[in-house]
Design goal:
The complex is a heterodimer of chains A (118) and B (106). Chain A is mainly β. Chain A has no helices and 11 strands. Chain A starts with a strand and ends with a strand. Classes of the chains: A mainly beta (118), B mainly beta (106).
């Protein structure tokens, strides 16, 4: 069974960079065929896909966020990370990491709330 | 960008059938997943590849997909099925979520 766990600061100041890490256990991020995703959910709202990194290192981001985000992979630690820069209060959300298995997001982390506030 | 539209809410009596629709252009040509999300919890996949149930998901959950509409059906709905439900598809190398439906079991 694959398990994903998000970690990172729960509070980020406006204009700074939000940095989160997802640690994967029960599976390797360098195993072929999987997409390692970040998804967020604004308070009381629906799910918003942010982007992914493929096991090979190639990335694909939501166009509306593309200029502000970087997703990277660390196979040595079975981790992948999200950096979202120039944050505002509008980026306050629960951030999830999830594994993409083809067209399906089959395993998710528990989510972590990130609040942007001074 | 690709859009998936769901009804905001569906109400169902215990033991009855709940039907949740998900509409998108030529959605029948794509694989659809469905997720259940309860308050304070992360989403759980209940259907993948239109009709398949992951291990551990009750048989009362079923899915279909044709034309422009995918459907999640909950047969014999139980109180524990009260949750938000999201459809999801894969379009041009991106994951797309539906707008979400709140299912209330009255």
């Amino acid at each position: 069974q694959v398990h994903l766990q998000e970690s990172g600061p729960g509070l980020v100041k406006p204009s700074q960079t939000l940095s989160l890490t997802c640690t994967v256990s029960g599976g390797s991020v360098s195993r072929g065929g999987y997409y390692w995703n970040w998804i967020r959910q604004f308070p009381g709202k629906g799910l918003e896909w942010i982007g992914y990194i493929f096991y090979s290192g190639s990335t694909h981001y939501d166009p509306s966020l593309k200029s502000r985000i970087t997703i990277s992979l660390d196979p040595s630690k079975d981790q992948f990370s999200l950096n979202l820069n120039s944050v505002t209060a509008a980026d306050t959300a629960v951030y999830y990491c999830a594994r993409g298995n083809g067209s399906a997001l089959d395993f998710w982390g528990q989510g972590t709330l990130v609040t942007v506030s001074s | 960008s690709y859009e998936l539209t769901q009804p905001p809410s569906v109400s169902v009596s215990p033991g009855q059938t709940a039907t949740i629709s998900c509409s998108g252009k030529e959605l029948g040509d794509k694989y659809v997943c469905w997720f259940q999300q309860k308050p304070g919890q992360s989403p759980v996949m209940v259907i993948y590849q239109d009709t398949k149930r992951p291990s551990g998901i009750p048989v009362r959950f079923s899915g279909s997909n044709s034309g422009n509409t995918a459907t999640l059906t909950i047969s014999g709905t139980q109180a524990m099925d009260e949750a938000d439900y999201y459809c999801q598809a894969w379009d041009r190398s991106a994951y797309v979520f539906g707008t979400g439906t709140k299912v209330t079991v009255l």
